[in-house]
Amino acid sequence: MSDNRNPLEGLTCPAPIPAKEKILLGHGSGGRLSAELLQEVFLPAFHNPVLAQLNDQAVVSVEGVRLAFTTDSFVVNPLFFPGGDIGSLAVYGTVNDLAMGGAEPLFLSAGFIIEEGLPIETLRRVVLSLRQAAEKVGVEVVTGDTKVVEKGKGDGLFINTSGIGRVAPGVDLSADRARPGDCIILSGTLGDHGIAILSQREGLEFETPIESDAAPLHTLVAAMLEAGHSIRCLRDPTRGGLSSTLNEIAVQSRVGMVIEESALPIREGVKGACELLGLDPLYVANEGKLVAIGAATEADQVLAAMHRHPLGAMARIVGKVVEAHSGVVTMRTYLGTSRIVDMLSGDQLPRIC
């Protein structure tokens, strides 16, 4: 069971957010500014034991049934991109937040904020894609809402989806449960989604076409949990990328982490695009990958189960949890040196999900 401590305690922030400071794009990056916003604004207002865990979902008990509940908003630009669109992304993103709590997804809601002037055909395409994604996952969209804002006030279309799932007895996953000696497993390649969005947004063409990795991860998670009962934490490294995700877990679990640069799977096209654009793939968003942290004794059998699943075929151990340097993530580089891998401080690629 998790205690009631503030999981952001110990995270170094430059200073409390001044009352007159305004919201920046970086406050939505999933990195350091996002953590500051949670610490200074949202947690003091809504603090409770469930919220304090700061997981991708809330797991609550209702008359003896454990339910996972989550919500997410999608503001991706452009609406359609290689490998997906805002409709399928809204389903997969929310389903994946449920899956990171070990939940079987059951129901979704869908709220649409539509800008005046959006072509009806565009909306039809998005709605059809959302429906097809829900059918693929096996969930129903059972409620929703629609709002229309004046032209110039909504940038086309925003979608909010909330999800409810069922958590099986004995499944207890949380970002505050990592322990020294645990293995860090990554399910596949980094940065595909963020670079696919950027290439479409900026009209960039690379030698190797890059598509978003957006996909529902619940069946992969089910296979992993069946193979290994000592998985302690699951996270999908979306905004802020792998680096911010590991830093969050390290702070919440009060442990250190060491990752191996040579073990990180990155497609050559993504690596080349990042080098060209001055981006670090550790901070680029993913929408169909997960990080698992669990006991080293079961790492091989969890990996074997992942390799049998199409979304885990490239899974590998990329690092370990350590007792030293609590709350800090370091990387052993190709050169054999070590460097600190900090949280994303700004926003490399806004409007990514």
- What is the radius of gyration computed over CA atoms, rounded to a whole number of angstroms? 19 Å
Strand content: 15-25%
The overall strand count is 14
Number of helices: 8
Low-pLDDT runs: 1-8, 10-14
Spatial sequence of strands, sheet with the most strands: 9-11-8-12-10-13-14
Report the mean per-residue pLDDT as an integer: 92
Counting copies of identical and different chains, the oligomeric state is single chain
Broad shape: globular
Q: How many strands, which pairing sense, and closed or not: the largest β-sheet?
A: 7 strands, mixed
Order of helices and strands: HEEEEHEHEEEHHEHEHEHEEE
Distance between the termini: 32 Å
Helix content: 25-40%
Structural class comes to alpha+beta
